[in-house]
Design brief:
It catalyses: diphosphate + H2O = 2 phosphate + H(+). About 20% of the residues lie in helices and about 35% in strands.
């Protein structure tokens, strides 16, 4: 398996098109994580089915969030994407998120070339409000059966705020 952090970088952050690697497909309750030391995907745990991911979940190569992991991405597509692929993704916003007291932001992206939607999504405002509500609910409650109240969606940010979060994470990676 390729080491995504060696063969890919974060992409064209200023241009709003970044590289994203898929860890968890939409609808899965498997918490699959990229193991940076071994350069493989690892099953971390199986979450209750009621907390299956409402969207594809992945990471941006050569970034490091404040929680010590690569910066997370929420990848919005109609169909699940398989673990282990990467895509060019358009940045449309950021979900400001805290997990057990640590900043764990999520960059919201869509495929850079989405002919199914006619590339209709360019910002969070373009998304159905119900989808935003579902994402917020999921991430506010997915740990409730184990450790209730430890996850908080603090706010949502626009494309420029998302790009700043990515740039800060790239700098953390470089400082590693």
């Amino acid at each position: 398996m390729a080491d995504f952090n060696k063969i890919l970088d974060a992409g064209d952050v200023d241009g709003g098109i970044i590289n994203v690697v898929v860890e968890i497909p939409t609808g899965s309750s498997h918490k699959i994580e990229w193991n940076r030391e071994l350069a493989v995907f690892e099953l971390d745990r199986i979450d209750p089915q009621i907390f299956a991911k409402p969207c594809n979940y992945g990471f941006i190569p050569q970034t490091l969030d404040e929680d010590g992991d690569e910066l997370d991405a929420l990848i919005l597509t109609e169909q699940p994407l398989p673990t282990g692929i990467f895509l060019k993704a358009k940045v449309i916003g950021v979900m400001k998120f805290v997990d057990d007291g640590e900043v764990d932001d999520k960059i919201v992206v869509v495929p850079a070339d989405d002919r199914d939607t006619g590339n209709a999504y360019n910002s969070l405002e373009d998304l159905p409000k119900q989808l935003i509500n579902q994402l917020e609910f999921h991430f506010s409650h997915y740990k409730d059966l184990k450790k209730a109240g430890t996850t908080v969606v603090e706010s949502w940010g626009d494309v420029s705020e998302a790009k700043e979060v990515i740039k800060e994470s790239i700098q953390r990676w470089k400082d590693l």
